Amino acid sequence: MPNAIPQHVAIIMDGNGRWAKKQGLLRVQGHEVGVQRVEEIIKAAQDKGIRFLTFYAFSKENWRRPKEEVAFLMGLLSSYLDKKIDAMIKNNCVFNVIGEMGDLAAILQKKLTQAMETSKNNTGLVVTFALSYSSRREILRACQKIAEQATQGAIKPSEITEEIFSRSLYTANMPDPELLIRTSGEMRISNFLLWQISYAELYITQKFWPEFTRDEFEKALEDYRGRERRFGDTCAANGGKT
Domain tally for the chain? Predict the structure, then answer.
């Protein structure tokens, strides 16, 4: 049987700089067009009835980029929050952030916190931006949290389950992604949601992120619908056939 629309789609947005170079533009101009694609894909996800949409917006490793580019990206994020977040909230979206927000400038932290607080009672699409995010750091943080609980006697090591561990992650209140999309053709996960994507379907496109339009998003969803999701069971998704 074909799959329904995934409840949670995660996206590694990659290729802004390379796209800009191919167009004879500055790298920062690629990031500007990339923001437009974010808006377009949010609208498409709403129209399709997707419940959770998670963007890998800025990794922990991205701080190593040239200071001028990092400053531009932080300014772009600030501008996005100023100009676009109100419309997102009015459209019943929930705004969410995962990652180490403490790495960001205080003014950005304030804007992000305000957006999350203002939208928390909305009931529509949950849009999550992974900012200063590292999955290894997230997993390590969860281990430390559970170890502290065990030290205090709140839990026994033998009582630690996958569910308890999942509740210690940034994504505690979200289902795991069923579909992970990566643009630009790169064949790697890049330290993104390593625990959560254990059984996600992977969709790799050669399109750079600025080229990833609604039509390309719908191609990914169509491809997903044609997959057999077995979760390690040879007959789970095909009526008992191996």
Answer: 1
pLDDT digits (tens, 9 = 90+) for 9-64: 999 999 999 999 999 999 999 999 999 999 999 999 999 999 999 999 999 999 99
Kindly give, in sequence order, each residue whose CB lies less than 8 Å from that of residue 156, ignoring residues fewer than 6 positions away. 150
What angle (nearest 5°) sits at the alpha carbon of residue 226, between those of residues 220 and 231? Answer: 100
pTM (2 d.p.): 0.93
Q: What is the distance between the alpha carbons of residues 15 and 185, in angstroms, rounded to a whole number?
A: 9
Two tokens at 76?
């772009």
Q: Which two tokens stand for residue 4?
A: 């329904």
For the annotated catalytic residues, the residue numbers are: 14, 62
Q: 203-213, pLDDT tens digit by residue?
A: 999 999 999 99
144 backbone dihedrals φ, ψ, rounded to 5°: -65, -40
Residue 236, in any domain of the structure: no
The enclosing domain of 220 has a CATH number of 3.40.1180.10
Q: Which two tokens stand for residue 189?
A: 């996960």
Q: 130 is in which domain, residue-wise?
A: 8-134+177-225
**Element containing residue 113 per DSSP (H, E):** helix 106-119
Are 196 and 171 in contact by the 8 Å Cβ rule? The answer is: yes
158 assigned to some structural domain: no
